[in-house]
Amino acid sequence: MTTQGAPRRAERQRRTKETAIDLVLALDGSGLVEVATGLPFFDHMLSQLGRHGGMDLTLRATGDLEVDAHHTVEDVGIVLGEALAEALGDKAGVRRFASIALPLDEALVEVALDLSGRPFLVYDLALPVDATPLGSPGFDPQLAEEFWRALATAAGITLHLRLVTGKNTHHMLEASFKAVARCLRDAVRVEGGGVPSTKGSL
Questions:
Q1: SS3 of 112, please?
Q2: In whole angstroms, what is the distance from residue 62 CA to residue 89 CA?
């Protein structure tokens, strides 16, 4: 439950045999981000999410990267999604819906989301067949879908991502993170007093 005027903020921890994650999220921030996951490219993407989403995000994650980056990426999505849901509270007054078409050089990505309480992901980013891991240690571009699925499920949001055009894998992924960030920034904005649903709750 969100108290009117209270800071929309959450702190989350996750400990498993595969990962250890500590996260602090402030929805109404200034885009200050401190992220360390052991995956530099993933850190770069998460920084885009915080910076362009207008959120303050502090995140520390350690995982079994020697096995695969999958556990770390997915668990970060889970924890960030849980924090987003907690910070939103009852969602009173939020705009709820948002969409954007965002370009990054040759790449153009369309994103639409709904803070619906109903988790659903449509991910239509056809990556190049020869896409290689980005950064060192490498971030497999296919893991971006696992991140968004984990986040959407944990946060209870409906999220659609679609690639309109693009050739460069880095550009395509970065455009998608920036696009989701801008949509979140818009959707979580408080502009009314009630819960934006005919059901009375989200």
A1: strand
A2: 28
Amino acid code (one letter) for 128: P
Res. 135 pLDDT band, cuts 50 70 90: very high
Residues 34 and 23: beta-carbon distance below 8 Å = no
Q: What is the pLDDT of residues 9-37, one digit of tens each?
A: 999 999 999 999 999 999 999 999 999 99
Range of the domain at 164: 9-187
Angle CA(33)–CA(101)–CA(28) in degrees, nearest 5?
A: 30
Cα angle vertex 114, ends 178, 159, to 5°?
55
Residue 192 belongs to a domain = no
Does 139 have pLDDT greater than 50? yes
pTM: 0.94
Q: Which of these, 179, 114, 121, 181, lies nearest to 149 by C-alpha position?
A: 121
Q: H-type helices in the chain, by residue range?
A: 40-53, 70-88, 143-155, 169-187
Structure tokens at 198: 């005919």
Q: What is the DSSP string of 109-134?
A: EEEEEE--SS-EEEEE----TT---B
196 in any annotated domain: no
| Cα end-to-end distance, the chain, whole Å | 11
Residue 66 maps to which CATH number?
Answer: 3.30.230.40
82 within a domain of the structure (yes/no): yes
In a domain, 69, yes or no: yes
Helix/strand/coil for 105:
coil
Decide: 179 and 107 in contact? Cβ < 8 Å: no
Query: For the chain, what is the domain count?
Result: 1
